[in-house]
Specification:
single chain; 23 helices; alpha/beta; DNA polymerase, domain 1
């Protein structure tokens, strides 16, 4: 588990304790522990290995032991016992935004509400408004919060499904007789949320592979098991489907299982116009099976160039292919630098020198250190004086490595009125300024839009970080007029960030295409808080491809110039 997951476990413990009405000091201890873990400048596993977990503020012997359990088992005994003592649906009820543990406890005691379904029914029946202190306005707020939570949890964020799918691929690859296996479906198309996990495998005995997959220790329930397909529910609560095919059938099966459905329907219609039949088994002219040794062959038989999986959404890609106008999409090798990373000067885990060394190892030509500005106290943000000291450290790295450019930057907070957290005189001394919203996320559409537009009108701002503030599966984008934001970016020459963290992938595909159409530059950034985080970039590239972006639209696919 990483720091965020450990912190979330402690927050869950605090919520359940508060729901139970336990002593406030116990609740506070877990909340302080969660905050200390989030702010830790080092990985918990490293601190534990060196016997230094107790150095984190608020982490005593009891919480230190629980961190150890979380790192070893993914949970801890006290939390498991507490979960068994509350109604089964209470955890999902507590996840509704704005519904705190005390309110949840009250609703349970007075109305018998113990899960989201119960809350939805009570809201439909207007039973909450008569409770003292609730009323119609509070009832409407909870109705909106419940609807928002349902939207967030109806699909799984890619940050959950992609690592799990990759682990499943490795397990299936080791099964006897498997020749090749790949992720398909919406994960292969790199949609930011997915309904389930789709895998395609080629094997000498497909049925045996399906049986072995269904018998895996990861599987909690088998939904269906046939000669070539196995459909299961994993221990994580996510559905996974494996389609195993005989040798020779892999390319057609992978293409079919990748989708999207609408893309496939359009291709089948095109095939019929050519007197062909396209299905999951291949492409045919009457009884004759045409050679399909790769997905490229399918498109070739249809008179089309290869369409990459990220574009297969029936959103204009077939028309572009027919017209010979498919975009040349961004590739990982096109990225020359990363313009948004953090160090241990704020809430990062590694030093300036360590982050620069890791970037050079990746072959980058430049890297921008963009630690948080002063108002983000939880991240130990920098003021002008500390930024000046950091620039001296950056200059020393540049002197030692003249072939590489380390840029002095900042992630400056945007205040509610659109002004910035640091004075222009400080920003003017920096190479790259990313401006971001971290507070006031609940402001209305007009205010949020004006905040970003005014920030972009500051001549020192080079890019807007994670522009919509979304966290997939946890937080919806804040209210924003993206049309106006993109227009302002085009007018001011400000880049919009595609934040490559799997939990964000912000901007969305729709907004990336809008930026492309309006001639707005996008900067694909890892937002790394440690060395491993630099590898987020590959996720950003995949997401950029979904937005039809190529090198021409991506700022950090070009050599660094201080324009």
């Amino acid at each position: 588990m990483d720091r965020q997951q450990v912190a979330e476990a402690f927050e869950e413990m605090a919520d359940l304790l508060e729901f139970r009405g336990e002593e406030p000091f116990k609740v506070r201890a877990y909340r302080r522990g969660a905050e200390a873990v989030r702010r830790s400048p080092e990985e918990l596993a490293v601190l534990r290995g060196e016997g230094r977990l107790h150095e984190l503020p608020g982490i005593g012997k009891a919480l230190e032991e629980k961190i150890g359990e979380l790192l070893d088992r993914g949970t801890f005994r006290a939390l498991e016992e507490l979960k068994r003592s509350v109604p089964a649906g209470m955890e999902e009820l507590l996840a509704v935004p704005g519904l705190g543990p005390k309110t949840a406890a009250r609703l349970y005691r007075e109305l018998g509400i113990k899960d989201r379904a119960g809350l939805a029914a009570a809201l439909e029946q207007k039973r909450l408004r008569d409770l003292p202190g609730m009323g119609e306005r509070r009832e409407q707020q909870l109705r909106e919060a419940l609807a928002a939570r349902e939207r967030l949890t109806s699909r799984h964020p890619l940050s959950e499904t992609l690592p799990l799918a990759e682990a499943l691929v490795e397990e299936v690859r080791r099964l006897p007789g498997v020749r090749q296996v790949a992720v398909a479906g919406s994960i292969r198309r790199f949609r930011d949320t997915t309904g389930d996990i789709d895998l395609v495998a080629e094997a000498a005995d497909p049925e045996a592979v399906g049986r072995a997959f269904a018998a895996s220790g990861r599987v909690s329930r088998v939904l269906a098991l046939g000669e070539v397909r196995a459909r299961v529910i994993l221990a994580e609560g996510i559905q996974a489907d494996l389609w195993a095919v005989a040798p020779g059938g892999f390319p057609a099966a992978l293409h079919h299982a990748t989708g999207s459905k609408n893309h496939s329907v359009r291709l089948r219609s095109l095939a019929r116009q050519l007197g062909l039949t396209l299905n999951e088994y291949g492409i045919f002219r009457g009884e004759e099976s045409l050679a399909v040794r790769s997905e490229e062959d399918i498109y070739r038989h249809l008179g089309l160039p290869f369409i990459p999986p990220e574009l297969r959404e029936d959103s204009g890609e077939i028309e572009a292919a027919l017209a010979g106008q498919l975009p040349e999409l961004l590739n990982p090798a096109d990225i020359l630098g990363d313009l948004h990373v953090h160090t241990d000067w704020s809430d990062g885990q590694r030093s300036v020198d360590e982050m620069a060394a890791a970037a050079r190892e990746l072959g980058y030509r430049y890297l921008a250190i963009c630690d948080h500005s002063r108002s983000l106290g939880v991240a130990h943000g920098l003021d002008g004086e500390r930024l000046a000291r950091q620039r001296e450290e950056i200059a020393a790295v540049n002197a030692a490595h003249p072939e590489f450019r380390l840029l002095a930057g900042v992630e400056v907070d945007i205040r509610m009125d659109g002004s910035l957290d640091l004075p222009d005189a400080v920003l003017a001394q920096l190479d790259f300024v990313t401006a971001s919203i971290h507070a006031g996320l609940g402001a209305d559409r007009a205010i949020q839009t004006r905040r970003l537009v005014r920030a972009m009108e500051n001549p020192h701002v080079d890019a807007i970080g994670h522009p919509t503030g979304r966290i997939l599966g946890r937080r919806e984008p804040y209210e924003l007029d993206l049309e106006e934001v993109v227009a302002a970016a085009a007018r001011t020459g400000t880049a919009l960030e595609l934040n490559a963290q799997l939990s964000r992938l912000d901007l969305s595909t729709e907004h990336l295409r809008l930026a492309r159409e309006r001639g707005v530059q996008v900067v694909v950034n890892s937002d790394a808080h440690g060395v491993e985080g630099l590898r987020n970039m590959v996720f950003g590239v995949r997401s950029a491809r979904r937005g039809w972006l190529g090198r021409a639209q991506v700022r950090n696919a070009r050599p660094w110039t201080a324009d």
